[in-house]
Amino acid sequence: xxxxxxxxxxxxxxxxxxxxxxxxxxxxxxxxxxxxxxxxxxxxxxxxxxxxxxxxxxxxxxxxxxxxxxxxxxxxxxxxxxxxxxxxxxxxxxxxxxxxxxxxxxxxxxxxxxxxxxxxxxxxxxxxxxxxxxxxxxxxxxxxxxxxxxxxxxxxxxxxxxx
Length: 163
What we know:
The protein has a single domain, classed as YbaK protein (Alpha-Beta Complex), CATH 3.90.960. The chain has five helices and eight strands. The radius of gyration is 15 Å and the shape is globular. The protein is of the alpha/beta class. Strand 6 and strand 7 form a beta hairpin. The protein has helices at 3-14, 30-34, 71-78, 88-95, 144-154, and strands at 20-23, 43-52, 58-64, 83-85, 115-120, 129-131, 138-142, 158-161. The relative contact order is 0.24. Strands 1, 2, 3, 4, 5, 6, 7 and 8 form an eight-stranded mixed β-sheet that branches.
């Protein structure tokens, strides 16, 4: 098992979080994931790494795959300056991730807890949600409550948002 995946699964096991791991070829979109010969259970999520206009606040927005994020509206909701997608360099610096692998598990690499995690309210209570374990060559299914348990352990600020 890849070292990256093992880092995530070891922590989940340490926290007594139940998960299901699916290994697969590298995928960069949900559409590519759908072409695999694997029957995933639960909801797919979009994970968007954002920054404010000054670049001093970073957000990880997690929302239902079928939804579109209106960044202008989200900035207003957060009382923030204009939001935009953060660069690949920032993604690597703050979450230790590469494009195509953005996931809430990336906060493992955010030792200063600088990234604010924004969760779509429609995810609350779901039994099965799918995320990459810091690499796009696998997918992990966990519950919303276990996702919260993981995020609380990591110590990043978590806010619920309406998308």
